[in-house]
Specification:
Strand content: over 45%
Order of helices and strands: HEEEEHEEEEEEEEEEEEEEEEEEEE
Shape: elongated
Largest sheet: 18 strands, mixed
Number of strands: 24
Structural class: mainly beta
Number of helices: 2
Length: 378
């Protein structure tokens, strides 16, 4: 058995999750509704993984033992929702909520694999905590027969503790309070040190949504339907960065290494700055059709403290078509769905130039798909 390939990264565990909530729903007169309450969550995880020291022979493990770690996280998450409708055509909404995102499983297993000759260690940070977000949303809606429904909304998030990698890090004596390694691994280099970002993340933006049916137009034009949504968002994130600095001390004839902790600033990962959804349709008796478009601009896909290695997507635009027609048989209809009509591709690029002379990281082609069939409802 090739232990380092087949056994070293095996792990198992169990998770116990429970939550309770209290909610009140209060109407004050005919115009104001208040929903308030809180939610408590408890998450207990117990994971079993491996701890090892590599053998001189690559397929053996010199020291091999099972390790376990139990985590207990509890959180109190309050929420408030206000709905105010001063007139039949005006609606105001306000929400203040608290949410969280938990680290993935492979980041918190108690795995440790050390290599003595290279003085490196693959160590997972089992002390990672969930990231917490305080969210505020406000929207203003106008509704009128000929106008349709127009909604203008503002949102903002203040996020603490999102999990990121700061790169490699040398394990020193002063790191013992946050890195659970034995003294024998002092001055070893942790290959990928992940931590809860100590810097707050701010995300904010605006959303405009418009829905209408042009019923007031003459003749067959009265079946036209229009939906449009535009979202713009901006974010500022200080990502943790660790640079290992080293020099040879000629007085002691010792190579000295230091961790230099700093940050670099970019936008929030997986977050586009602009999103556009648009569809135009037509409804007439038993026929209904929609032509829709989805657009989002470049998205940060991968962070790295080297700017040239950060990855962004190209702007993405996709068109879809959906048609259906009711047939003379009650409950029977014919449908046609065509996806990705222009065969848009997913492209991600490095910000720097690769050895091939371009910046292409990944290009995925999906083509178009067409579904045609009959649907019977009863």
């Amino acid at each position: 058995i090739h232990q380092t390939n087949s056994q070293m990264y095996d792990y198992n565990g169990e998770e116990k999750y429970k939550a309770t909530y209290v909610m009140s729903d209060i109407d004050i007169g005919q115009k104001l509704n208040i929903i308030a309450g809180f939610r408590t969550e408890q998450n207990i995880t117990k994971y079993f993984s491996k701890s090892s020291l590599d053998h001189a022979l690559a397929h053996w493990i010199y020291v091999y033992e099972n390790t376990k770690h139990q985590r207990d996280n509890s959180y109190f998450l309050p929420a408030l929702f206000l709905n105010y409708k001063p007139t039949p055509w005006l609606h105001l909404k306000y929400a203040q909520t608290n949410t969280l995102t938990r680290p993935d499983y492979t980041s918190i297993i108690p795995l440790m694999r050390a290599n003595g000759s290279a003085r490196t260690v693959d160590w997972r940070n089992k002390f990672l905590e969930p990231g917490l977000s305080e969210n505020i949303d406000f929207s203003l809606s106008f509704h009128q027969d000929q106008l349709g429904l127009l909604t203008i909304g503002h949102f903002q998030k203040e996020i603490e503790g999102l999990v990121y990698s700061s790169g490699s890090r040398i394990f020193f004596e002063e790191d013992k309070d946050k890195i659970a390694l034995e003294n024998m691994y002092l001055n070893y280099r942790i290959l990928d040190y992940r931590l809860n970002n100590p810097n707050k993340i701010n995300l904010k933006g605006w959303e405009i949504d418009y829905q209408t049916r042009l019923w007031y137009l003459p003749g067959i034009l009265s079946g036209l339907v229009l939906n449009a949504n535009y979202t713009t968002a901006s974010s500022v994130v200080k990502y943790p960065r660790t640079v290992i600095d080293g020099y040879f001390d000629w007085d002691t004839f010792i190579f000295v290494q230091n961790n230099i902790d700093s940050t670099y600033t970019d936008k929030l990962i997986d977050q586009p700055n602009e999103i556009i959804n648009f569809s135009i349709g037509y409804d007439y008796k038993g026929f209904s059709g929609r032509l829709s478009m989805l657009y989002n601009d470049d998205v940060l896909m991968a962070t790295n403290f080297w700017p040239e290695l950060r990855q962004d997507t190209d702007a993405y635009r996709r068109w879809d078509l959906s048609l259906k027609q009711r047939l003379p048989v009650d409950g029977l209809e014919m449908f046609l769905n065509a996806s990705n009509l222009t065969e848009a591709t997913d492209v991600s690029r490095y910000r720097g130039i690769t050895s091939k002379g371009d910046n292409l990281k990944l290009e995925q082609y999906y083509g178009k798909t067409i579904d045609f069939g009959f649907r019977y409802k009863f």
